[in-house]
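$ fold --in a.seq
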Amino acid sequence: MNNHASPATADVSKISLTIDPEAETNRIATAMREQVRQTLRRRGLILGLSGGVDSSVCAALAARAVGAKNVLCLFMPENDSDPDSLRLGRLVADTFGLESLVEDIGTSLEAMGCYARRDDFIKQIEPEFGPGWASKIVIANALTNEGYNISSLVLQRPDGTIKKLRMPSSVYLGIVAATNMKQRTRKQIEYYHADRMNYAVIGTPNLLEYDQGFFVKNGDGAADLKPIAHLYKSQVYQLATYLGVPTEITSRPPTTDTYQLAQTQEEFYFALPYGQMDQCLYGLNTSMPAAVTAKSAHLTEEQVLRVWSDIRAKRKATRYLHLGPQFVTAIADFHDA
């Protein structure tokens, strides 16, 4: 598959991330089948199904790769989860005839202090925060802040009124550290079932998420294979339509489903809708002129340059997420000998 138009011959009227969904589905399914059976030597595949488009596409691809009977989907709601996530996840499993299990992780997170730790950090800047309140973290739009990532805490009082607060770095890091327990606990559950069934674990990031470090290390970033990490988000949607992912999912805005308040991915991390982010990332990856990228993304040239600055900043800040354990000296790998 060719993800990119040639930057040397790119004409704005021809810039497109359109793929051949049938050919790409066959290519991915074949690769997944070989990875599971030959490289990983596992019997099947397992994944957490969130009701979002990425995990839904991965579930459908898994069924194509190893057969529906060899795929297990896990639903892992917790105290802050949107009930729609479980309902939509079940819809996907039913659509593709996949076995599924519900593992409610709320009690485990309570026992580890996930919610209490988060609330304690919030109370450092809003002492009244407590039962009946709700929260989320949002990021400022990269187009209006010279490319700097400025996060704020949004609180909803019991009477429904909203309060937005700037956070010192210690509060921001503390809230994120506490909520990251959710992704790491889910991954622990996935690997428990993978170990008992001799299955491999699927990771579900798309190219935009993978490139920008939109995952938790040893949480949703952990996996045995990542079948759509080479695809832009808009290409994932093309596969979703081809594979028959329910329209209720493909028409739903991408969400984090992490905080108490409803939160889109662009509010929390990307600052722009995925379509524009795809175009900007594509332009940067292919060394396309900013002017051409701007026309394609329906932005000004100055805005594109700010988005590119934001992309580079996130790459730098999240590089450690992509690194494996660091050694003092190189250790020979004899596994392929």
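$ fold --in b.seq
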Amino acid sequence: MINPREVHVNKVSGSVSLLCAAVALVACGGEQGAERSEEIASSQELLSVATSLALGNSHVCAGLASGTAYCWGSNANGELGDGTTTDSSSPVQVSGLSGVVDVSTEFNHSCAVASTGADSGPSTSAYCWGANGYGKLGDGTTTARQVPTAVSGTAGAVAVATGYNHSCALISGGVVCWGEDGRHQLGDAADATSRLTPVTVASLTNATAIDAHSYTTCALRTSGVVSCWGDNYLGVLGDGTQTARKTPVDVTGISTAIAVTVGNNFACAVLSDGTVKCWGANGVGQLGTGSTSPVYSTTPVTVTGISNAVAIDAGHDHACVLHSGGGVSCWGLNGNRQLGDNTTTNRSSPVSVGSLSNATLVSAGSITTCAAISGGGVKCWGSDVTGQLGDGGSLPGTGSGTPVSAGLP
């Protein structure tokens, strides 16, 4: 995923500034009425732009430039955050959140970074909702929550990441994690002790972005190095071994990364030259090398045909990149048409999501993929069994092999 501090926050600030400028014109009477109305309408549209986007197993959440968050899809555990447990094929607003700058979703829970405090000097904290096994909501309990609950000790958070049963937050270059630790995914050097509240990841002080999936967590560092910890099945930590790690280890040969993402037993990074490297499982072509042989790699290999990537996100068994021109390419598992090429053929090298040319964010889930669109809106493709496409259709939906528009406000 893209560095939330550099992208998500800046987009929010930019949109709010444009709105304030439009309001000021009206107040001062400096423009004709029609022009003022057009300026205001344009600014209001900007406030509906998705500035963060995340897909879980069967649900989607988006943070908007207005500071609100909306989710849709599966809601059996309250992971949509609207106070119910009813699935929804239309986006519903997450209750009680404002100033949202990042969202993350996984198996059956969701988290966000949102503002707290007075308008004169707001800070941010992490909030989570949904299932709470192993304490992955970070509120000191294992009680499921249908609306966001504050995560203790996360003041100043700028990004969040969620795995199956753990969650993490990025704070001032450091990372804290909470929830299940059976495979050392919390990174605190302890002996696999689950935590109901955050603990600090050991020896990590210069992180700029984080991501998690399943039982593994990774961080991008200011130096361009990627460090990972937790489960290392099939080499997902990228250190040349399959040994689980209690504390962060550096991915072999990565020193110029600008983005990192973690899937199910594989991970990828975008490098400063626009190329992409992946490591870990490759049984369905997740590494994007044009082949499923070998079936895994414990060190990074180059994704074929990518030279202008600016962002990346991995789902369960597929990955997608955002190109500098706004296009999107995906590879890996495609049984539910999650690659967006209108087939169900797995791909071991990237294929273009043909109708997309103006994407600003991309996020891959288990069997669905979505992209935020320049100027506002989100488009999704793949499975729609629990309403993951967000188009308001009846459930279960039939899905789509090409992008369809989610009904965001």
